[in-house]
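Morning. Coffee machine broken again, so started the prediction first thing and wrote up yesterday's gels while waiting. Chain of 130 residues, entered below exactly as on the submission form.
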Amino acid sequence: MFQMMIRISMHKLIAFSIFATTLIGLSSCSQDDRPYEITVMVTVQDSIPVRNALVRMFAPVENTIVDEYASTNEFGEARFVFDNKVFLEVHAVKGSWRKCDGVEINRGPQTMMINLYPFRDPRRTCSQQQ
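Came back before lunch.
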């Protein structure tokens, strides 16, 4: 009788373990449906937010449809949302100050910091005609 109770308890334990493992496995396979979004924070002197800077995000290839512009808000932030994962060039400009960089946009919120530099400063990493 005692052995029979142990077998029943073992069967229940095994059944529960299989159920729990299956439930955990199914929940970890859920599709990530967060948008592809990025907030670009534009500063000068590595900390001062730049209001009304123009931020351009575009794919550096011919015949692309990705070419977005936004102005920074009072906190120096410009937000972009895309339909797909993309690798883009980022140009931020305010007067003669500018900075160029690249970024890969993934699912979920991302933040990118861009510090502007004056004309002829080699840290701009932009060609002179841009």
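The chain has two domains: 1-30, 36-124. Going to sketch it on the whiteboard this afternoon.
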